[in-house]
Amino acid sequence: MRDIVFTRQSGWIPNVIREDGELKLMLGAGADANHEPRTFTFPIGEAHLAVIRNDLARHLLLWSAVLPLCDAAGTRGRLDEDAAVALLDPILLAAPADVDALFRRIRWDRSRLIAHGADIGLLERGQVCAAMRAATETPNGKRAQEYHVDRRRAERGAVFGPLDAAILRYTGQYLHGATVPRRMPDAVDSALRPEVMRVIATAEQACAGMRIGRDPRRGNRATDKRDWERMETTVQAAVRRAHPELVDDAVGTVSFLMCSEAADRSRNTPMEDDEEAAGHRADFRGSGRKTALSFTDDKGVEKKWLRDGPRTAAAEFWEFVGDRSAGDNEVFTIEDEEMGEGIQLHFYADSIARITTLREGDGRSDPEYRVEYRLVDGIGGYRNLVGAFVRGGCAALEQHGPWMSDVAEFERARRRRDAR
User: Looking at residues 12-33, what average pLDDT do you find?
Assistant: First the structure.
């Protein structure tokens, strides 16, 4: 039979129980093989209970010293009760100087004490009893997280000033650098907020007019990596020039914020607007030359575009690519059957082919085609070539050369580029 004798407000601080007439300290720590929390107990005496009941600081110190023993038990092992019991008198009943000396010799969980209000400076100087004078029952997990983040930064030589820290708090990246940044002005101390906003204004001015377009080769919501890198470089250069005192982490989080916001705007823009903003709008609904185009992928799926439809050819095509592109589907074709010409995009090789019908088949002989190849520089290059083709066909691509009809020559050019 188990009865709770003493507990604190925070459910994680160890409880004192009476089990089969014996006083024990009970705490949850670690997890078993099924990821369920493990519970450990070990015997204590009445004198220990009296201190635990009346001295929060000593209670927390005992907890921090026992937790490494629980970790050592792993998912199945037993708690080393003798080692746990051996901690009771030196932590709960000894003089503060002796407790401090003990903590310089044993392993203990620093984060628990910091979460419960320990003075970090005193802890780091080995004065654990004095550090716990302001201890609280209610934990602040974020405080412990920030301490560990600061230590990791210090280990790699990053020393933050108040403005650096404020900028990372503004973007929500102080604790987790991989978190998508957002604007959180209320997270910044009011005295530092104007300085933070001046840094943000510098970044906004630097990338005004820049955009991050979409890259349908990687899906309808993917964005252009080169556009991202271009904006990132521009913002970082401007911020470093205007605010040379900032550390790399602060500069990086500001550029991350600008790029993330630009990418989100692009993802939420209709494909027609995205094409127009990128300068590749191909709206030839008023043109008398083309009436229809056919889009196909490497899986044999086909989609038709008609001049009288509500959308531009380029928008329809790139949406088709975004819907269908995959690791095993990287060849897409645009064909104008009426004119007997088309282009084939090879995303796996960063290349394109333009195909012109020289002679139609007549049942007795196969048709004859002229196929010419060209290397392509990123999604921006593809957009330019697709836009030119849907506006003026293969003839409009002539100015976007050089085009190579010799396959061996093209392969040599591709290998030279890839080697660079």
Answer: 91
